[in-house]
Amino acid sequence: MTAGKPRALVAGPDMLARRRTALALRRAGVQMVEETETGREALLVLAERLMDAVFIPWTLDDMTALDFLAATARPGPNRGLPVVIVGENPSTPQRVDAVKAGAAGFLPEGQGDLTEWIQDVLAKNPRPHHAE
Q: Which of 25, 35, 63, 115 is close enough to 67 for a disulfide, judged by CB 3.0 to 4.6 Å?
């Protein structure tokens, strides 16, 4: 995780879904959570700031999760960033494609307290420490 406070970015067109995910992240100890509506906005945030993880739905208004994963695989400070797909349950072939593209996991929405699951994803995907 980043030095100091863990940071996460939550992207997606559904404000309520973003807020639920942000709340679950805060319960899991992520102290800095930013939100964006689109994949493009999320990529702009990642170009400016380092994060510990990104949480996105399978489909954003302007790209799919696979498009987003491809963009975060390019060289840059957030390369290798854990990207978690939130919400809808993708089909098995979609899950396989997402994992091959670098997805760190799939967060089921509305499944109760996800604190331990989120902490586990962050622990399995440590980020290099960097200055605030």
A: 63
